[in-house]
Amino acid sequence: MGKAFSNVKFSILDLAPVLHGHDATLSFQNSADLAQHVEKLGYHRYWLAEHHNMPGIASSATSLVISHIASHTKTIRVGAGGIMLPNHAPLVIAEQFGTLDALYPDRIDLGLGRAPGSDQATAHALRRTLNSSPEDFPSQVEELEAYFAGAARVKAVPGQGANVPLWLLGSSDFSARLAAEKGLPFAFASHFSPDYTLPALRLYRDRFTPSNQLSKPQAMVGVNIIAAETTEKAKWLATSQQQQFLSMIRGKPSQLMPPIDDIDQEWTIYEKASVEKSVNSKSTIVGDKDVVREKLAAFIEETEADEVIINSQIYDHEERKNSYQIVSDLVHV
């Protein structure tokens, strides 16, 4: 079983959860503490995601939170997983991440997505062009690359010459195809889009073209893991994530709620089916160390992931740290 983990890197996806009854101040304190904890455990990188108009996610100003985490850690790579590039002028992103690279050399990653990370009204509030097309994303990536390379007429200062590896993120085949064409590493959001995981990874690997950044495909795959001393306890902790997905399905996103004893009292059979379309055995591992070991090994074998990035939406901060400890003990990161 150990061989399943031996050549795989393990990393953290932190959605900086805003806990019910608390505010973002606690979220950022918890994130810094978690980052220090997983750095000691040997995890490879720590990524934060851009989301807007989400009461339960505090990382909307993603580059600022990245700086906060990097300032509280020493060696772990820190980055965006990801920045939704269509929400921003590429020049501004080049300057922000050039600044981060200057402050924390050789530690910053930049994952790029094309989804708004929000609803249409929020996209409009962000001044995102409502008639924009997904076809604009490749040209935006090229523009960003030009700023980093110093090839644009306008210079990104800081930014020009920055050592910031680019990743493309996706939950379908669009970014898989683009990452393959550009020879960039690819991160797939299996943790909420499990049905498209294998086709997207296959497309990426089959069409990969070597580049200056990468000589062979490099695939990261997301998974939700909620680990505890017993499977019963892990399932109880997992009800916080289930409630969060339920609130989004109902169109009323909420803070991360405490776990509850009977989730079936909270949803209809149709809502349960809708939640389980995203949070199911393909995307989420819930259990004790033996369950996690078996299912994580199977996940890696099926996806052939070079790296696994783990999201753990757990209400209690100490239980969240413990979950990452259990995984670390299993895979010896």
From TrEMBL:
| Matches recorded under NCBIfam families | oxido_grp_1 (TIGR03558)
Family of the protein in this entry: To bacterial alkanal monooxygenase alpha and beta chains.
Q: Which GO terms describe its cellular component?
A: cytosol
> What are the protein's GO molecular function terms?
oxidoreductase activity, acting on paired donors, with incorporation or reduction of molecular oxygen
Keywords for this entry?
A: Oxidoreductase
Supply the name of the protein.
MsnO8 family LLM class oxidoreductase
Q: Which species expresses this protein natively?
A: Gracilibacillus thailandensis
- Which residues does the UniProt record annotate as the domain Luciferase-like? 9-303
Q: What is its EC number?
A: 1.-.-.-
PANTHER family with a match to the protein in the record: LUCIFERASE-LIKE MONOOXYGENASE
Against SUPFAM superfamilies, the record matches this protein to:
Bacterial luciferase-like
The family database entries (Gene3D superfamilies) matched by this protein are listed as: Luciferase-like domain
